[in-house]
Task: structure prediction
Amino acid sequence: MYNKSISLFDWRSDINLEKADAIGEDLILLEDPVIHSSFNNPFKVDITALIICTMGSIEGNVNLKHFTLKAPALFVVLPHQILELCAYSRDFYGYYIIMSHQSVDRLTAVYIKNLHTLRNAVKNDPWTPLSKENMERMLLYFKAIQRIIRVEENIHRVKIAELLAQAIYLEIENVFHKSLKNEKKSKRTILTERFMDLLEHHYQKHRDVQFYADKLSLTPKYLSKIIHEDTGSTAIEWINNYVLLEAKALLKSTDLTIQQISVQLNFPSQSHFGKYFKNHTNLSPKEYRLK
Result:
C-alpha cells in the first residue's frame, strides 16, 4: 500500500541531472563529485550504481557493513541496499553509471552467466581496488558511452550504448574475479550468507528469529548461536539493526507519515512502531525525524 522506496533519484536537487548524459532513467552517466550533505542520512536505492573513484576517499556503510574506499577503486551499489555515507575527502572524484533494475537485467541476460554469484560477491565486498589498467579500461568504456549518448541523430544510439554497458559488466566480472573463485567456505559461513540473504528480502515483514530458522530448517537457538559466532551479533540483533536502519532512512529521507512508515514495516500499529523505535534508540520516531 505504502510502497514508496527511498531512491537515489529523490535527490534531484543534489545530483545535477542537467549535467548528466542519459537515456531516460535506464542509463545515466555523471562525471562530477556529487556527494552532498543530504547524503549524510541513510538512504535506500532502487537502482544499480557503479562509481569509478579516481581521486580521494569515501567512508560509509552498506547494509550495516562498513567500508573505506580509496582511489583508484570501483564501488558497486545494488538495488534495495541501504547506503550511509559518513565521510569523504575534499578531493573525492568519481565517474557514476546509474542503471535501472530492468536495464541491468536486460544487459546481463546474455553475457553474464554467473550473475547471481557476481551479485553475492558484490554484496560481500561492494568495493574493490582497481589497477591502473582496469581503471583506464573502465574510463574508456565510460567515455565511449558518454559520446554515443550525445549523438542523438545516430539511429543505433541506444543499442550501441547498451553493448558498451555490457562490456563494463564484463569488466566488473573480471575485476571481482578473485571473489568469484570457488573458494571452500565453512558450513557456518554458508549458513550466515543464507541468513543474510533471507534477511535482506524479508526484514520488513518478519522480525522474529523463528521465521528465518524455519526457512533454514534450524532451531532459533542454534541459528542465533551460529550467527553470533560468525558475526559477533545475534540473529535478533541483525534483524533489529536492519529494521531500525530502514526506519531511520524512511524518517529522514521521505515525507511518509509515521503511520505510513509503521505500515510499510509491518507493525500492527503506529503505537507499536513508536515503542519499538524508542526502545532501541531512546528517541521517538518524531524526535528522530526532527533531530
The first helix runs from residue 101 to 111. The longest strand covers residues 47-55.
